[in-house]
TrEMBL record:
GO terms for molecular function: oxidoreductase activity. It comes from Micromonas pusilla (Picoplanktonic green alga). Residues 1-20 are annotated as: Disordered. Residues 49-292 form the NADP-dependent oxidoreductase domain. InterPro entries: AKR (IPR020471), Aldo/ket_reductase_CS (IPR018170), NAD(P)_OxRdtase_dom_sf (IPR036812), NADP_OxRdtase_dom (IPR023210). Keywords: Oxidoreductase. This is NADP-dependent oxidoreductase domain-containing protein. Pfam families: Aldo_ket_red. Belongs to the aldo/keto reductase family. CDD domains: AKR_AKR1-5-like (cd19071).
């Protein structure tokens, strides 16, 4: 039997993995990469490939998730496959997720974590955050639960750390007063506060407050949704000066301050560029120029947030609107996009 001809050489270059991203040490003693891949608004059907590419080819070891993003199952498939292929070991991977706003009672905290672990195909989380500093009744939107509290939720998270299901715990969107209140009763200090941060909304006082207390700050939406900011002459001039992309200027501005960044992208070239921040440094004049972009306005449309000025009116209005809705329908945001997301309220006896 004739031997088969040797295969023609492939025109596709072999996969290469960039050097690892530098890390910061959390107060829990665990190391957290300074750049992570954000998955907020990364669509199902696309997000898995982005996670796989980031880990296997672009040097990423940090993935930022949340049950409310409605894509953790697909992210979990990509994480499982990356570990199975040898692209990364579990101990080198850093995975963050977040607990939604109606999960504040101990049984709901545990159930929320267990669902996320199943979806992500993991035995433990590296970091679990309270997504927002609000306490809603289970299955509702913007309806306060007077019988639950952030302190009670935190104690439940501390117990899950003791069990080894979470390595570090933290918060998201907390201000100084909310952190002070939490730390008065906390046995384990928050390791991270994830906040919206970019030159338009630098939140420097909050960053300084956290860093002085050993709390690492993570910036979500660190590019302020790009667009107009990429084209701003201040940003484009600095990018040209350093021969980098505008996005790299904005990300370097945060990591140079010791702030972790989790930019979202599903485009391989952008995923790579977003982690390539170590070949240049912003000088004092660059930082001063970027400071002129501050306008204090959030780019995140969350009506329960406090940064968008319109929420002063919108928040109470939506709270009132959602009250009668909560008497008819229950929603489980942690199951968004799949069965069990909603049910009739009277199925619970109401």
């Amino acid at each position: 039997m004739a031997s088969s001809a040797p295969a023609a050489p492939s025109s596709t270059p072999p996969a290469r993995r960039r050097a690892p991203v530098p890390t910061v040490t959390l107060n829990s003693t665990h190391e957290m990469p300074l750049v992570g891949l954000g998955t907020w608004q990364a669509p199902v059907g696309v997000v898995g490939a982005a996670v796989a590419d980031a880990i296997s080819r672009r040097g990423y070891a940090h993935v930022d998730c949340a049950a409310a993003y409605a894509n953790e199952e697909e992210v979990g498939d990509a994480l499982r496959d990356a570990m199975a292929s040898g692209a990364i070991a579990r101990e080198s991977l850093f995975v963050t997720s977040k607990l939604w706003n109606d999960r504040r009672r101990p049984r709901d905290v545990r159930a929320g974590l267990e669902q996320t672990l199943r979806d992500l195909k993991l035995d433990y989380l590296d970091l679990y955050l309270i997504h927002w500093p609000v306490v809603w009744r289970r299955g509702t939107l913007m309806q306060r639960d007077g019988d639950a509290s952030i302190a009670e939720c935190w104690r439940a998270l501390e117990a899950l750390v003791d069990e080894g299901k979470i390595r570090s715990i933290g918060v998201s969107n907390f201000d100084e007063a909310q952190l002070e209140e939490l730390m008065r009763t906390a046995r384990i200090a928050p390791a991270v506060n994830q906040i919206e941060r970019h030159p338009k909304l630098p939140q420097d006082a909050l960053v300084r407050y956290c860093q002085e207390r050993g709390i690492v700050v993570t910036a979500y939406s660190p590019l302020a949704r790009g667009g107009a900011l990429f084209l701003d002459p201040v940003v484009s001039d600095i990018a040209e000066k350093h021969s980098v992309a505008p996005a790299q200027v904005l990300l370097r501005w945060s990591v140079q301050r010791g702030v972790v960044v989790v930019p979202k992208s599903v485009t391989p070239s952008r995923i790579e560029a977003n982690a390539d921040l170590w070949g240049f440094e912003l000088d004092a004049s660059d930082v001063e120029a970027l400071s002129t972009l501050e306008d204090g306005e959030s780019v995140v449309a969350s009506p329960w947030g406090t940064k968008q000025k319109k929420n002063v009116v919108l928040r109470p209005l939506l709270t009132a609107i959602m009250w009668p809705v909560s008497k008819i329908v229950r929603v489980d945001v942690q199951r968004m996009g799949r069965s069990g997301f909603w049910r009739w309220a009277w199925s619970e006896g109401e």
